[in-house]
Every structure is written in structure tokens, then in C-alpha cells.
Amino acid sequence: MAADQEPSASSAGTFQQAADQLKSAFESRLEALSSQGASPDDGLKALEEIRIQFTGKKSELSTLMASLKDLPKSEKGQAGKTLNLLKRDLELGIKEFKQKLEESKKAAELAREWIDVTLDDTYLASNTRSHRGLGSLHPTTRIQYEIEDVFTSLGFDILDGPHIETEFYNFEALNIHENHPARDMQDTFYLKDGNLLRTHTSTIQVRGMMNNKPPFKVIGPGKVFRCEKIDASHESTFHQLEGMMVDKDIKVAHLIYFMKTLLSRIFDRDDLEVRLRPGYFPFVEPGFELDIRCLICEGKGCSVCKQVGWLELLPCGMSHPNVLRAGNIDPDEYSGFAFGLGLDRLVMMRFQIDDIRHLHSADLRFLQQFP
Ligand SMILES: [Zn+2]
């Protein structure tokens, strides 16, 4: 078309028509690609072909762009605008589609490469989505941790001690001399070297007194051992938690306060029935038995409470002056209280377990009840 030639009246309209056709062809290609449901990689390849076809050097758009120079000045502006708008639309369409594909590609990669670092092979071997394969804390350990939390919140320190003890720590320092009848009640396993397996966690208390200057508040949880006739409420290996507070002017009221706080927190109820009755323990004076109304039979009587409806839970009392002296503490200046908790009994009450032997049975059917 010569520059001086009169332009056809439909030149601008022809460009508009061509642009509309190209745009709708482009859009139906994208729609077809999107409805194919191809993988992101295949989609990106097909999209590149569409891009070359519609906006590349050999595309219809390029041909139209090139033909602009032949248009008369009066039409160049309008036709150029039409083509530029088309070009912008096509490029934007490609860009948005590409973004979508790249996002789904990334999502697919993340889903494929996701690794749960908390998994171990026990879990994988369990072949189940439940956490059963991971195991869980033994109910006794759980109660022990809970009690430790209660006492640390009350300012107590947690102490540990050896299972194998000397007679001094297990008996003599606790006012239980060689011929004391309490040694019969606490028969234990003796080692050839004269040492023994500790019969109570009170040994931790003795070591605590020797290593701490009053005032102090300590608890000592752990395994203890006795030569027992084993039945529903007696085991040769069980758990205790010892506690002691030493300061000036410590009275029975302090003891009662801490015991009540502990039990209401552990059982999470206010209607717990407890009773305090005089009890004899060589290491306290006065000594008490703190009993709890049996939570398994609600006091009617069962094998765990030996049909009396009450369960001895807590021997406790004011520390005997001889015990304080053995721990290098002057009983004229300081006083204190001590208590021993039977952890296994607490566990049995809390989870309504009717036989202590379940606790050490290592029976998975039992343990799996505490996920
Ligand atoms: Zn009972």
C-alpha cells in the first residue's frame, strides 16, 4: 500500500477484528490447556509453545505489527494502539498462567519432599496413624512428674539418690538402730558387701540434710525395694516420693497445708476425704498416717484397701530430733516435717487400677491404656 494512496475505510476496523480473533483464539488455547489437567511440567512446555505461536517473531501479531508502517499516518495511531493492547493482554495472560503452573509445581514438590523429623522407625513400623507405636510415659512416671511440678511450684528442690545404700543411710540415720523392730517391717535385699537396696526414699532425705543448710524444702522421688509377700497391693519394687521441709518454727499446720495442696492438685477434686491418725515411725515425732478414702470402692471395701475403705497413703510427721542431728542440723534451732508418698498407690487410686502387679507387668495391653 503506497503512502499517498487513499486508505481503505476499513483498515482500522480490520486491525481490530484481527486482534479480537487472535485474542479469542489465544484464550481458548489457554482454556483447553487448563482443562487438560496436565502436570505442571507438561503445562509449562505447552504454554511456551502458545507463547511463541502468539507473540513470537513469526507470530501473526508480529506480522501485523510489521504491517503498521505501511498504514497512512491517520490510521497508524489507532491500529498501533489496538495491537499494543493485544500484545499486553497476551503477555499478561501467559504470565498469569505461568505463575499458576509454577505454584502448583512447587506445592507438588513440597508435598513430595516433606519429611517429618519427629518420626522414628517405631512409628513407621507401627503401620498406623495412631501414636501408639511411639510409646508413652508409664503412669507412675506421669504421676511422679506431676507431683514434682506441684512441689517445685511451691519452692521445693528435687533430689536424687542411689538405689544401693549403706545401713547408715537407710536405717541408722533415720533413728532405726540395729535391733529396732522397724528393720523387720522393712526387710530388704542385702548385698554380699553388706550394702542393701534402699527400703524407702528417706535415704534421699538424709543425704539432703547433710548437703543442705536450713532452711530448705526438698523432695526425693525414686524406686524402693522390700522383701515383701507379693499381692494386689504389695510389690518387691515400688516407688516413693520423700519430702522434707526444715526451717525455724515449722509446725504440723505447715505439714497439713502442703499435704492438702498436693492431694487436691493430684486428684483434681475438692471432695477428697482424708484422715490423719497417730502413726509410729522412728524418724518422726509426732508421727501421723494420712489416709485417703478409697477411690476404687468409694469406701465400701475392696481388695486394694483390704476391705476397710481407707488407704494408707502418706506416713508423715515432724522430723525426730535424732534425725535432724544425724543430718548435722541443730534441733534446738530448727524443726521440720517429713512425709513419704507411695507413688504406686497414688497411681492406682488415680487411674482406678486394682492390682499393683500390673504396674511392673510390662504388659502392653495394660500400658496402652495410658496413651
Ligand atoms: Zn477400696
Short description:
With 371 residues, the chain is an alpha+beta fold. It has 13 helices and 9 strands. It folds into 2 domains: 11-113, no CATH class; 135-367, Bira Bifunctional Protein, Domain 2 (BirA Bifunctional Protein, domain 2).
- Domain tally: 2
**CATH level 1 class label of the largest domain:** Alpha Beta
Q: Which molecules other than protein and nucleic acid are bound?
A: zinc ion
Strand percent estimate: 15-25%
What's the helix count? 13
- Give me the secondary-structure category: alpha+beta
Fourth-tier CATH superfamily name of the largest domain: Bira Bifunctional Protein, Domain 2
Could you please describe the fold and organization of this structure?
The protein is of the alpha+beta class and 371 residues long. The chain has two domains: 11-113, no CATH class; 135-367, BirA Bifunctional Protein, domain 2 (2-Layer Sandwich), CATH 3.30.930. 44% of the residues lie in helices and 16% in strands. The protein is built from 13 helices and nine strands. The chain has a seven-stranded mixed β-sheet with strand order 1-4-5-9-8-7-6, sandwiched between helices. The protein has a two-stranded antiparallel sheet with strand order 2-3. It is rod-shaped. The N and C termini lie far apart (87 Å). The structure holds zinc ion (ZN). Zinc ion binds at residues 294, 296-297, 301-302, 304-305, 309.
